[in-house]
Amino acid sequence: MKERAAIFCANGIGDALLMSPLAHALGSKAFKVDVFHPNPKLLEPLFPVYNWMQIPNSDSLLKILTSYDKVFIENDNSANAWEIINLRNKHGLKNIFFLFPTPCPKASKSNDFTFKKNVSFSKNLENAVSFFLGDLSFQSTPDTFLKTLEPLNKDPKRIVIHPLSKDPRRNWKKSKFLSLANKLHAQGYTVSFVLSHDEYPKWEEVKKLGLDVKSFSDLKALANFIATAGYFIGNDSGIGHLASLCKIPTLTISGNHKRVKLWRPGFCLNKLALPFLPLPCFKGINFYFREWYWQSFVSVHKVLKTFKKLTQVSIGGVR
Question: Per-residue pLDDT tens for 91-119?
């Protein structure tokens, strides 16, 4: 009988995408893999080989945790994560292993894995797989994921732009995205803005400017379209990880140097467009300068220069 393994992802769609190589690694080691996430129905079509489950409530959590041979938790300092930490300590559970994207001395144990600074999540996850499973040859690869897609003809001159994220503070200005799209179009690229059905009304008027705007009802349809592109540009968001899983070179626009170095798309070539220097954040006086004003420090010109570097490196075949 196969051993059973569970993965508890943090809440974001991007978290589930980032953790997918761990599910792949466990599957290759002959584990039966269940993946827990707040939105399992959204993710199941992308990874049908794994069993996607809803995060359990407190009443059933201990019973579920003890039913697996190995349980891997992506720590996000949420109430759910701390509940599992407390259950592990209280009951001496030896089958639970945490991945800490940021250090947490109060909770971590010797059999947990803490990520290294200034290294992408995907690269850290490769190291975590080696640590947990002893698989030094494993590399986070989207090859098994790509087999689930049904992309149309690929257009290397198409650029897909996702201009939003779940956090408005991470979004570059709409006016700058529009200016960027027009300048890229003038350079001979086909530019398509992609949005969910919920996001679409905020950008519907862009069609009147002659720009291509598409909406998608599910992640599988969105992934199929992104897989036809040559490049992807977006904010620090989960859709960038989806593009990276599709082996599309990505450009990420962000104002947070520290955060984006860890959370950047890392399954394929990625370039970052950031302010020249890290911006301050005056939390003590509740003046979150970096969070709300970084967009003014990343110009369209800078993003264009960064995109040119992305194209040069991708054409040269350097990762």
Answer: 999 999 999 999 999 999 999 999 998 89
Q: Which domains does the chain have, with CATH numbers?
A: 4-138 (3.40.50.10160), 158-310+312-316 (3.40.50.2000)
Classified as helix, coil or strand, 313 is helix
Whole-number Å distance between alpha carbons of 234 and 221: 18
pLDDT over threshold 70, residue 285: no
Instruction: Please tell me the predicted confidence (pLDDT) of residue 319.
Output: 41
pLDDT for 248 equals: 95
Grouping H, G, I as helix, E, B as strand and the rest as coil, residue 195 is strand
The conformational region for residue 51 under phi > 0 = left, psi -120 to 50 = alpha, else beta, is: beta
Choice between 66 and 198, residue whose per-residue pLDDT is larger: 66
Q: pLDDT for 307-319, tens place per residue?
A: 999 999 887 554 4
Structure confidence at residue 100 (pLDDT):
98
Cα distance between residue 83 and residue 156, in whole Å: 47
C-alpha dihedral sign at 57, 60, 62, 65 = negative
Give the residue-averaged pLDDT of 280-288.
60
What are the φ and ψ backbone dihedral angles of 69, each rounded to 5 degrees?
-75, -40
Is residue 125 within 8 A of residue 21, CB to CB? The reply is yes
Provide the CB-side half-sphere exposure for 254 (13 A, CA): 22
Rounded CA gap, 15 and 91, in Å?
A: 28
CA quadruple 123, 125, 131, 135: dihedral sign: negative
What is the C-alpha to C-alpha distance for residues 273 and 233, in angstroms, rounded to an integer?
10
